[in-house]
Amino acid sequence: MSAALPDLPQLAGLTSLPALEHLDLVAAPVAAALAAWPGAAAIAVVEIDPELADTAAMSAAYDLPMEAGANCVLVAGKREGEERVAACLVRADTRADVNHTVKRLLDVRKPSFLPLERAVAESGMEYGGITPVGLPAAWRLLVDARVPEMELAVIGSGLRRSKLLVPGSLFAQAPGAEVVAGLAG
C-alpha cells in the first residue's frame, strides 16, 4: 500500500487512500456515486479485515469509539399499495427511530428493515458494508442531524473489506440527503 496523504482523513494507523483513486476498494455503485459527487475528493478509503466489518468488531479492533462510526439501515413500508424505501444514516452509538420518526417521514403504516437478501441484491453491496453512497436514487436518504456534526464518519464502502472515511459535513450535501433532527435516539 502507498503512504497516506497528509490531507486525507486518517483512521487508527490504517493507510488512508484517496477513494477516487482506489475505486477498486469499493462496490461498483459506490464507485459510480463517488465519481459523480463533488465532495468525494475529501473522502478516503481504508482496507480492513473483512471479519471486522461490523461496527462493534471494528471499533474494538481499532480502538475507535462507537460515536466515530455511522451506520446505514434500510427501511421500507407501504401506504395505499405504494412501497417507500429509505436509507437511514445514524451515528453508530445510536439507533434509527424506525417506529416513530421514520414511520412519520415515510408516511407508512408499519416500517420494517429491508430483508437482508433484498438489501444486498437491490443495493449492489455486501452485507456489513451497505453505505448511503451509491444507493438507488429512488430511495430517500435520511441523515440524522448529528452525523453532519461529526468531524469524521467511518462508514461502509459497499464491501466488507474496506471503509470510507467521510467528513461528516459532506452528508448534509450528499445527493438527495434529508437532514432530520431526532432521526436516531
TrEMBL record:
Pfam families (UniProt xref): tRNA_edit
Alphabetized SUPFAM superfamilies for the sequence: YbaK/ProRS associated domain (SSF55826)
GO molecular function, one term: aminoacyl-tRNA ligase activity
Record keywords, A-Z: Aminoacyl-tRNA synthetase, Ligase
Gene3D superfamilies for this protein: YbaK/aminoacyl-tRNA synthetase-associated domain
CDD domains xref list: PA2301
Residue ranges constituting the YbaK/aminoacyl-tRNA synthetase-associated domain according to the UniProt record: 50-166
Protein name, entry field: YbaK/prolyl-tRNA synthetase associated region
Naturally occurring in which organism (per UniProt): Nocardioides simplex (Arthrobacter simplex)
